[in-house]
Amino acid sequence: MRFHGKTAVVTGAASGIGxxxxxxxxxxxxxxxxxxxxxxxxxxxxxxxxxxxGRTVARPFRGDVCDPAFRIACFDSLCQEGSPxxxxxxxxxxxxxxxAVKLDKGTGRAAIYPRETFQRVLDVNLTAPVxxxxxMIARIAEDRHRRGLSRWEPTEPSEGAIxxxxxxxxxxxxxxxSYSASKAALAGVAATLSSEAIHYGxxxxxxxxxxxxxxxxxxxxPRILEEQVLPRTQLRRLIRPEEIxxxxxxxxxxxxxxxxxxxxxxxxxxx
Length: 271
Ligand SMILES: NC(=O)c1ccc[n+]([C@@H]2O[C@H](COP(=O)([O-])OP(=O)(O)OC[C@H]3O[C@@H](n4cnc5c(N)ncnc54)[C@H](O)[C@@H]3O)[C@@H](O)[C@H]2O)c1
What we know:
- With 271 residues, this protein is α/β, with parallel strands linked by helices.
- It has 8 helices and 9 strands.
Protein backbone atom coordinates (compact mmCIF):
# COMPACT_ATOMS: atom_id res chain seq x y z
CA MET A 1 0.00 0.00 0.00
CA ARG A 2 1.32 3.45 -0.90
CA PHE A 3 1.99 6.06 1.81
CA HIS A 4 2.05 9.08 -0.52
CA GLY A 5 -0.97 11.37 -0.27
CA LYS A 6 -2.53 9.42 2.62
CA THR A 7 -3.62 10.46 6.10
CA ALA A 8 -2.55 8.64 9.29
CA VAL A 9 -3.49 8.72 12.97
CA VAL A 10 -0.89 7.87 15.59
CA THR A 11 -1.74 7.92 19.29
CA GLY A 12 0.95 8.14 21.95
CA ALA A 13 2.81 10.28 19.41
CA ALA A 14 4.49 12.56 21.96
CA SER A 15 7.03 9.93 22.97
CA GLY A 16 8.87 6.71 22.24
CA ILE A 17 7.39 4.34 19.67
CA GLY A 18 4.49 6.62 18.64
CA UNK A 19 6.88 9.51 18.00
CA UNK A 20 9.15 7.26 15.90
CA UNK A 21 6.13 6.00 13.92
CA UNK A 22 5.07 9.59 13.16
CA UNK A 23 8.58 10.40 11.94
CA UNK A 24 8.70 7.21 9.83
CA UNK A 25 5.33 7.95 8.18
CA UNK A 26 6.31 11.54 7.39
CA UNK A 27 9.65 10.41 5.93
CA UNK A 28 7.76 7.95 3.70
CA UNK A 29 5.51 10.62 2.22
CA UNK A 30 2.29 10.44 4.25
CA UNK A 31 0.49 13.72 3.58
CA UNK A 32 -1.17 14.34 6.97
CA UNK A 33 -0.56 12.74 10.35
CA UNK A 34 -2.77 13.25 13.39
CA UNK A 35 -0.38 13.15 16.34
CA UNK A 36 -2.51 12.31 19.38
CA UNK A 37 -1.32 12.43 22.98
CA UNK A 38 -2.29 13.75 26.41
CA UNK A 39 1.20 15.20 26.93
CA UNK A 40 1.99 18.83 26.11
CA UNK A 41 5.09 17.59 24.29
CA UNK A 42 2.91 16.51 21.34
CA UNK A 43 3.10 20.10 20.01
CA UNK A 44 6.91 20.06 19.99
CA UNK A 45 6.99 16.61 18.38
CA UNK A 46 4.63 17.87 15.66
CA UNK A 47 7.01 20.76 14.95
CA UNK A 48 9.96 18.31 14.83
CA UNK A 49 8.10 16.02 12.39
CA UNK A 50 7.38 19.01 10.11
CA UNK A 51 10.98 20.19 10.34
CA UNK A 52 12.39 16.75 9.46
CA UNK A 53 9.95 16.35 6.55
CA GLY A 54 10.48 19.91 5.29
CA ARG A 55 6.70 20.41 4.92
CA THR A 56 3.59 20.78 7.05
CA VAL A 57 2.46 17.22 7.73
CA ALA A 58 1.71 16.98 11.47
CA ARG A 59 -1.61 17.85 13.11
CA PRO A 60 -1.20 17.71 16.91
CA PHE A 61 -4.24 16.78 19.02
CA ARG A 62 -3.93 16.93 22.79
CA GLY A 63 -6.29 14.85 24.93
CA ASP A 64 -7.08 11.51 26.56
CA VAL A 65 -7.42 8.62 24.08
CA CYS A 66 -10.10 7.12 26.35
CA ASP A 67 -12.39 10.12 25.75
CA PRO A 68 -14.83 9.26 22.90
CA ALA A 69 -15.68 12.93 22.19
CA PHE A 70 -11.98 13.74 21.77
CA ARG A 71 -11.53 10.76 19.42
CA ILE A 72 -14.48 11.78 17.25
CA ALA A 73 -13.29 15.42 17.14
CA CYS A 74 -9.80 14.30 15.97
CA PHE A 75 -11.28 12.22 13.14
CA ASP A 76 -13.76 14.98 12.21
CA SER A 77 -10.90 17.46 11.95
CA LEU A 78 -8.74 15.14 9.79
CA CYS A 79 -11.67 14.13 7.56
CA GLN A 80 -12.58 17.79 6.94
CA GLU A 81 -9.19 18.19 5.23
CA GLY A 82 -9.76 15.37 2.74
CA SER A 83 -10.26 11.62 2.63
CA PRO A 84 -10.53 9.67 5.91
CA UNK A 85 -7.30 8.38 7.48
CA UNK A 86 -5.89 5.25 5.83
CA UNK A 87 -3.47 4.30 8.59
CA UNK A 88 -4.06 3.96 12.33
CA UNK A 89 -1.35 3.13 14.84
CA UNK A 90 -2.87 3.47 18.33
CA UNK A 91 0.35 3.39 20.35
CA UNK A 92 -0.62 5.27 23.55
CA UNK A 93 -0.04 2.93 26.45
CA UNK A 94 0.71 2.74 30.16
CA UNK A 95 2.14 0.29 32.66
CA UNK A 96 0.95 0.03 36.26
CA UNK A 97 3.12 -2.81 37.53
CA UNK A 98 2.54 -4.66 40.77
CA UNK A 99 2.23 -8.23 41.99
CA ALA A 100 -1.22 -9.78 41.48
CA VAL A 101 -1.30 -10.83 45.14
CA LYS A 102 1.27 -9.68 47.70
CA LEU A 103 1.44 -11.14 51.20
CA ASP A 104 2.57 -8.90 54.04
CA LYS A 105 4.42 -11.38 56.23
CA GLY A 106 4.18 -9.03 59.23
CA THR A 107 0.40 -8.71 59.27
CA GLY A 108 -0.40 -11.94 57.44
CA ARG A 109 -2.70 -9.97 55.12
CA ALA A 110 -2.58 -10.41 51.35
CA ALA A 111 -3.09 -7.32 49.18
CA ILE A 112 -4.79 -7.80 45.82
CA TYR A 113 -3.80 -5.73 42.77
CA PRO A 114 -6.27 -2.77 42.76
CA ARG A 115 -9.34 -3.28 40.58
CA GLU A 116 -9.41 0.42 39.51
CA THR A 117 -5.79 0.23 38.32
CA PHE A 118 -6.53 -2.94 36.36
CA GLN A 119 -9.48 -1.20 34.70
CA ARG A 120 -7.45 1.92 33.80
CA VAL A 121 -4.74 -0.18 32.13
CA LEU A 122 -7.40 -2.02 30.11
CA ASP A 123 -9.05 1.30 29.20
CA VAL A 124 -5.84 2.85 27.86
CA ASN A 125 -4.07 -0.20 26.40
CA LEU A 126 -7.00 -2.23 25.08
CA THR A 127 -10.32 -0.39 24.79
CA ALA A 128 -8.87 2.88 23.48
CA PRO A 129 -6.75 1.31 20.67
CA VAL A 130 -9.73 -0.81 19.61
CA UNK A 131 -12.02 2.24 19.40
CA UNK A 132 -9.45 4.38 17.53
CA UNK A 133 -9.18 1.52 15.03
CA UNK A 134 -12.98 1.11 14.80
CA UNK A 135 -13.37 4.85 14.24
CA MET A 136 -11.09 4.68 11.21
CA ILE A 137 -12.87 1.62 9.80
CA ALA A 138 -16.24 3.37 10.28
CA ARG A 139 -15.04 6.54 8.49
CA ILE A 140 -13.73 4.44 5.58
CA ALA A 141 -16.99 2.45 5.42
CA GLU A 142 -19.03 5.68 5.28
CA ASP A 143 -16.71 7.17 2.67
CA ARG A 144 -17.04 4.07 0.47
CA HIS A 145 -20.82 4.23 0.80
CA ARG A 146 -20.79 7.90 -0.30
CA ARG A 147 -18.70 6.89 -3.34
CA GLY A 148 -21.23 4.17 -4.22
CA LEU A 149 -18.85 1.33 -3.33
CA SER A 150 -20.00 -1.74 -1.43
CA ARG A 151 -17.95 -4.80 -0.55
CA TRP A 152 -14.22 -4.22 -1.25
CA GLU A 153 -12.84 -6.24 -4.15
CA PRO A 154 -9.24 -7.48 -4.45
CA THR A 155 -8.96 -5.59 -7.75
CA GLU A 156 -9.36 -2.30 -5.84
CA PRO A 157 -6.50 -0.56 -4.07
CA SER A 158 -6.25 -1.12 -0.32
CA GLU A 159 -8.31 1.34 1.74
CA GLY A 160 -6.27 1.23 4.90
CA ALA A 161 -4.29 -0.61 7.53
CA ILE A 162 -4.14 -0.74 11.33
CA UNK A 163 -1.23 -1.89 13.46
CA UNK A 164 -2.01 -2.57 17.11
CA UNK A 165 0.89 -2.49 19.57
CA UNK A 166 1.15 -5.69 21.60
CA UNK A 167 4.19 -6.61 23.67
CA UNK A 168 6.41 -9.53 24.60
CA UNK A 169 4.57 -9.23 27.94
CA UNK A 170 1.44 -10.54 26.20
CA UNK A 171 2.91 -13.99 26.92
CA UNK A 172 2.75 -13.17 30.63
CA UNK A 173 5.25 -11.30 32.78
CA UNK A 174 5.70 -11.22 36.54
CA UNK A 175 4.30 -7.99 38.02
CA UNK A 176 2.29 -7.17 34.90
CA UNK A 177 -1.08 -8.82 35.42
CA SER A 178 -2.98 -5.84 33.94
CA TYR A 179 -0.48 -4.95 31.21
CA SER A 180 -0.13 -8.58 30.03
CA ALA A 181 -3.91 -8.97 29.92
CA SER A 182 -4.33 -5.80 27.85
CA LYS A 183 -1.62 -6.75 25.36
CA ALA A 184 -2.66 -10.41 24.98
CA ALA A 185 -6.23 -9.34 24.24
CA LEU A 186 -5.08 -7.25 21.26
CA ALA A 187 -4.19 -10.46 19.39
CA GLY A 188 -7.85 -11.51 19.50
CA VAL A 189 -8.89 -8.04 18.38
CA ALA A 190 -6.47 -8.09 15.44
CA ALA A 191 -7.68 -11.53 14.34
CA THR A 192 -11.31 -10.41 14.51
CA LEU A 193 -10.80 -7.07 12.74
CA SER A 194 -8.68 -8.79 10.08
CA SER A 195 -11.67 -10.82 9.03
CA GLU A 196 -14.29 -8.05 9.46
CA ALA A 197 -12.57 -4.88 8.22
CA ILE A 198 -11.36 -6.37 4.94
CA HIS A 199 -15.02 -5.98 3.90
CA TYR A 200 -14.09 -2.28 3.55
CA GLY A 201 -10.54 -2.94 2.29
CA UNK A 202 -8.85 -2.40 5.67
CA UNK A 203 -6.22 -4.78 7.10
CA UNK A 204 -5.28 -5.16 10.75
CA UNK A 205 -2.10 -6.59 12.27
CA UNK A 206 -0.42 -6.65 15.64
CA UNK A 207 3.24 -6.05 16.38
CA UNK A 208 4.82 -7.33 19.60
CA UNK A 209 7.80 -5.14 20.54
CA UNK A 210 10.44 -6.30 22.98
CA UNK A 211 12.12 -3.94 25.43
CA UNK A 212 12.52 -0.66 23.57
CA UNK A 213 14.48 2.39 24.59
CA UNK A 214 11.63 4.74 25.56
CA UNK A 215 10.66 6.62 28.74
CA UNK A 216 8.28 3.74 29.62
CA UNK A 217 11.15 1.26 29.78
CA UNK A 218 13.75 3.69 31.22
CA UNK A 219 11.32 4.16 34.14
CA UNK A 220 12.09 0.57 35.17
CA UNK A 221 15.50 1.83 36.33
CA PRO A 222 19.03 0.94 35.16
CA ARG A 223 19.48 -1.94 37.62
CA ILE A 224 16.46 -3.94 36.45
CA LEU A 225 17.46 -3.32 32.82
CA GLU A 226 21.06 -4.46 33.43
CA GLU A 227 20.19 -7.49 35.56
CA GLN A 228 16.86 -8.74 34.21
CA VAL A 229 16.29 -7.39 30.71
CA LEU A 230 19.57 -7.20 28.78
CA PRO A 231 20.83 -10.71 29.75
CA ARG A 232 17.62 -12.21 28.27
CA THR A 233 17.88 -10.19 25.05
CA GLN A 234 20.00 -11.69 22.24
CA LEU A 235 21.00 -8.23 20.98
CA ARG A 236 22.20 -7.30 24.53
CA ARG A 237 20.78 -3.81 24.07
CA LEU A 238 17.38 -2.15 24.09
CA ILE A 239 15.59 -1.97 20.76
CA ARG A 240 15.56 1.48 19.18
CA PRO A 241 12.09 3.04 18.69
CA GLU A 242 13.01 3.54 15.01
CA GLU A 243 13.47 -0.24 14.65
CA ILE A 244 9.91 -0.82 15.90
CA UNK A 245 8.64 1.98 13.63
CA UNK A 246 10.33 0.35 10.63
CA UNK A 247 8.58 -2.96 11.38
CA UNK A 248 5.25 -1.14 11.72
CA UNK A 249 5.88 0.54 8.35
CA UNK A 250 6.44 -2.91 6.83
CA UNK A 251 3.15 -4.20 8.29
CA UNK A 252 1.26 -1.14 7.04
CA UNK A 253 2.73 -1.20 3.56
CA UNK A 254 2.83 -4.88 2.61
CA UNK A 255 -0.70 -6.24 2.02
CA UNK A 256 0.49 -9.85 2.06
CA UNK A 257 1.66 -9.65 5.66
CA UNK A 258 -1.01 -10.15 8.29
CA UNK A 259 1.10 -10.35 11.44
CA UNK A 260 1.55 -10.94 14.30
CA UNK A 261 5.13 -9.76 14.06
CA UNK A 262 7.53 -10.23 16.99
CA UNK A 263 10.13 -7.45 17.06
CA UNK A 264 11.72 -8.58 20.30
CA UNK A 265 15.50 -8.65 19.75
CA UNK A 266 15.49 -12.32 20.69
CA UNK A 267 13.87 -11.85 24.10
CA UNK A 268 13.61 -14.98 26.26
CA UNK A 269 11.33 -14.65 29.30
CA UNK A 270 12.55 -15.86 32.69
CA UNK A 271 11.80 -19.58 33.29
N1 LIG B 1 8.93 0.50 25.28
C1 LIG B 1 8.75 -0.82 25.22
O1 LIG B 1 9.67 -1.61 25.53
C2 LIG B 1 7.46 -1.41 24.74
C3 LIG B 1 7.43 -2.79 24.53
C4 LIG B 1 6.24 -3.36 24.08
C5 LIG B 1 5.15 -2.57 23.84
N2 LIG B 1 5.21 -1.23 24.06
C6 LIG B 1 4.01 -0.45 23.79
O2 LIG B 1 4.31 0.55 22.85
C7 LIG B 1 3.45 1.66 23.04
C8 LIG B 1 4.29 2.92 23.18
O3 LIG B 1 5.09 2.78 24.35
P1 LIG B 1 6.40 3.64 24.60
O4 LIG B 1 7.41 2.73 25.13
O5 LIG B 1 6.68 4.47 23.42
O6 LIG B 1 5.89 4.51 25.84
P2 LIG B 1 6.06 6.06 26.18
O7 LIG B 1 5.69 6.15 27.61
O8 LIG B 1 7.35 6.58 25.71
O9 LIG B 1 4.90 6.74 25.29
C9 LIG B 1 3.56 6.52 25.53
C10 LIG B 1 2.80 7.77 25.18
O10 LIG B 1 1.40 7.51 25.38
C11 LIG B 1 0.82 8.68 25.94
N3 LIG B 1 -0.38 8.31 26.66
C12 LIG B 1 -0.49 7.46 27.72
N4 LIG B 1 -1.75 7.41 28.13
C13 LIG B 1 -2.47 8.25 27.33
C14 LIG B 1 -3.83 8.63 27.27
N5 LIG B 1 -4.73 8.12 28.12
N6 LIG B 1 -4.22 9.50 26.31
C15 LIG B 1 -3.31 10.02 25.45
N7 LIG B 1 -2.01 9.70 25.46
C16 LIG B 1 -1.60 8.83 26.40
C17 LIG B 1 1.89 9.24 26.87
O11 LIG B 1 1.66 10.60 27.15
C18 LIG B 1 3.15 8.99 26.06
O12 LIG B 1 3.49 10.09 25.27
C19 LIG B 1 2.61 1.33 24.28
O13 LIG B 1 1.39 0.78 23.86
C20 LIG B 1 3.44 0.28 24.98
O14 LIG B 1 2.65 -0.55 25.79
C21 LIG B 1 6.35 -0.63 24.51
